[in-house]
Amino acid sequence: MSINVFPAFAVPMAERFHPEPAELNEALMQVILALEAQGAGYRNPDPVVHQPDGLFESEFDFFAREEACVQELRGWVWGSLGEFLRNINPDMAEGTRGLRIASQTWFHLTREGGYFGYHNHPMASWSGVYCVSDGQPDPDYSNNGCLVFPHPQMAVNTFLDAANARLRWPYSHGNFVITLKPGQLVFFPSWLGHYVTPFRGAGQRVTIAFNAWFNRVE
């Protein structure tokens, strides 16, 4: 009988690409640039993570806005999150009936040299990010404006030798790196630490992020 290899501990993540993102992203970009132009009027007044030059972090109420493009994205994101959870949570196999979603939603607008340090999202169950624009990253820089998830098993690199240094995915122990493309949506558990590498490019790298948690409706 052959040996059975299996992952004992797994981190559930998911991605989806919007089928027609160009028009939606153009409209979102117009809204976001107008909000950035307000400066302190729409900037997050209480940032938890250091805000370097080249990064604008908005207030955390973006999906509450009434613009049609924002509401279109909101519906698509929450619908996608529900589909993801139905795939991994047997208690949600019939959908999210009886549950009320609560959330924080915001955008990051990043220009040359901007980045975002290591963090996670306490007091939420699921987080995610949608890419509006990749900002035309300079190809001369590797790992340019990437979303990076360091391996969460902290003891995984305690001892390395020829037998464990280069395991195949999903058993490898390096960082998980995503170069976001316009229209791409990524979900991950809120506890999972991550950061964004410095962006080098001619444009604006724009992402919309969220934290979500659910309450039962009595």
Describe the protein's architecture and organization.
The protein has 218 residues and is α+β, with helices and mostly antiparallel strands. The protein has one domain (14-216): q2cbj1_9rhob like domain (Jelly Rolls). The chain is 17% helix and 27% strand. It has 2 helices and 10 strands; from the N terminus they run βαβαββββββββ. The protein has helices spanning 21-36, 68-88; strands at 14-17, 55-57, 99-110, 116-119, 126-134, 147-149, 176-178, 184-189, 194-196, 205-216. The strands form 2 sheets. It has a 6-stranded antiparallel beta sheet with strand order 1-8-5-10-3-2. The N and C termini lie far apart (51 Å). The mean pLDDT is 96.
- Largest beta sheet: strand ordering: 1-8-5-10-3-2
The total beta strand count reads 10
* Average pLDDT over all residues: 96
Please tally the helical runs, counting DSSP H or I stretches of 4 or more residues.
2
Q: Which homologous superfamily in CATH is the superfamily?
A: q2cbj1_9rhob like domain
Strand content: 25-35%
Radius of gyration, in Å, reads 19 Å
Shape: globular
SSE string, helices as H and strands as E: EHEHEEEEEEEE
Structure class: alpha+beta
Low-confidence stretches: none
Q: In which range does the helix fraction lie? A: 10-25%
Mind telling me the CATH class?
Mainly Beta
How would you name the oligomeric state of the polypeptide chains in this document?
A: single chain
Label the CATH architecture: Sandwich
